[in-house]
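Reference record
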Amino acid sequence: MSQVQNDFLKLRQYMNTEIIGQGKLIDRMLIALLSDGHLLVEGAPGLAKTKAIKKLAAAIECDSHRIQFTPDLLPADITGSDVYRPENGTFVFSKGPVFHNFILADEINRAPAKVQSALLEAMGERQVTVGATTYMLPELFLVMATQNPIENEGTYPLPEAQMDRFLMYVKITHPDAKAEHEILKIVRGESRQEEKATVNKITQKQVKAARAEVLNVHLSDKLEEYIVQFIMATRNPGAYDSVLKSYVEYGASPRGTIALDTCSRARAWLDGRDYVVPTDIHDILHDVLRHRVLLTYEAEARGITPDSFIDALIQKVPLP
């Protein structure tokens, strides 16, 4: 095990002591960081989504910023804008909050599509264009967007084009009773200002080195073929089951193939292995594909969800 891999495992342990009962979210955040992708997290209020990204940013040598999405937000409030300087009659670009390493787009679905689209170029191209000038974003750049599944009033569903920009779409639930007890202990400790666990900060150089190691994780030809065939099955499920054929309007894009490849490698690396096993692929299938599979009205009428559709495909597409 390399030193950088050991440092990330320590970071993983530290995050699990700070964010109780959300091990899946922590793993997905680290996988997104290692895969150089972005994360969309859906969960009820109070599940430590904001705290998790703040803790991760604090454990890495980088800067972070929270953007609270509201109906009156403007695109310039995210990207920045040219500001007129009357003293010399020139315009100077004032950078917006997107020019940080870690961005928390809190309740992203509360802003109109015009504002949401301001993140499209930033997330996809790692740059921002204002007027005729393009500005590059930091090399280490991660967006974690959240949305509340409980309230629909005053919200704007994310368009498919923006959904596809997210590496993973993670759904989290409430912690169990044991975790609730641990949460109470932590909150009491914070109120009493008790000494807390610490972790050595991960440098951006270490993040870059970790990403290079993840790319070198071995993925066999048979598992690569399985990933490709699974993506093909989302586009043409009729090849495996005639009933499933009527459930899909559009299958996963090539971004889904790339995401399955990188995320499965990152998950294997976080588990201390230098090779991918089928469990790594199955563990991240739903998070990678649930927002990339568009179902038909017939499927929705029958209560079929993207998750249940993916479950059915797992049973149909044979492992190598």
